[in-house]
Structure prediction request, 444 residues.
Amino acid sequence: MRTSTRGPRGLVAFAAVAALTTGLLAGCANDSGDGSPDSNGGSDGGGGKGRTTLTVGTFGVFGYKQAGLYDEYMKLHPDITIKENVTTRTDVYWPKVLTRLQAGSGTDDIQAIEIGNITEAVQTQAAKFVDLGKAVDKSQWLPWKLAQATTKDGKTIGLGTDIGPMAICYRKDLFQKAGLETDRAKLAEQWKGDWSKYVDVGKQYMKKAPKGTKFVDSASSVYNAALGGASERYYDQGGNVVWDKSDGVKKSWDVAMQVATSDMSAKLKQFDPTWDQGFANGTFATVACPAWMLGYIEQKSGDPGKGKWDVAAAPTASNWGGSFLGVPVASKHQKEAIALAKWLTAPEQQAKVFAKQASFPSTPSAYAGLTPGGDTTAYFSNAPLTQIFSDSAKTIPTQYFGIKDQPINSAITDVGILQVEQKGKSAAQGWDAAGKEIKDVLGQ
Prediction:
């Protein structure tokens, strides 16, 4: 999740199980995290001795260099050299970007913006970014993705890169042992439209669960997956904090509590070593998985999991993750930077990044040509991966994020839900604990 600590941009690709360059919730990629250039000294991708050097500031691994896009662009534009400056963590990256935006100098020609920071950028930094909507055909992007980077007066400060459409990854061998349906289409029908139905399948699973296994990895993962499909989260369209009144939050909390107060959760914290071990040991039967998580599962479950994992449509269309590319007004080469940002986020280039590392495009016209690698398809029981994720992507609702969206979410998952799931508190006590934390976050 591309939140305060860089999301999983660098996961193993659909096309191949490459070295895991994971950012996840704890950071990504290959530098010291201090905002310095990457390990190649600000690599230009291996070419270019042009007259104009464009710098691209990213957090974690966006895949442009890895997919050869920088090299390709420099061959098409011999007068351009591209230098990528990588910072591992967004909680290091974004504050530095804000400081440089306010100073009006020191920014890269292109700055990546994480989905968790896009609302802050739109609401407080729009004047510091170029309106990219004037340079592109905005209909290329999913409407909800475009809306996230667009101001009330129609200025588009960022072009969408990837998204994280949701599915349910499940161990069909464990389902079979528990006497449950294993066919992905029939299974999806059982929980279609309601995450509570997914929990109902979990209750059935636990009646005959194979020894040492649980239905799901954690209650927090169910909460986040359900909330990812809600039109209203912690803020309303007017920018008002409504976390305690939000229908989406309440429904997601309720379904998470069904998990947390039952015996169906393995009570693992996602991206911790124990979670990784859970994949390796087959200790949970399902996990809510956006497209980028397939490579993670493949790597952590290893050869023993091949052909045992399958993928079914999630109960509701949901999104976890995604970023944008913006061009600061302070860019020394605005015209050239706009052209590069436009090219990197075009459907053709998004498809190439997908083929390299499973970053799912935010441009629907790319979907028809997306082809997962044969190894990954076989690993997940020949599931129609592109269809499942593209169907979800096309119906995800527009969501409104606020400046304190991330800490509010952490208060609910890491304080409220944890109190119930791991410390045995009641749902009411967990909600109260989350509320106190949120008041501190909001300075109330």
Observations:
- Residues 165-320+396-442 form a domain with the D-Maltodextrin-Binding Protein; domain 2 fold (CATH 3.40.190.10).
- The two ends are 27 Å apart (CA to CA).
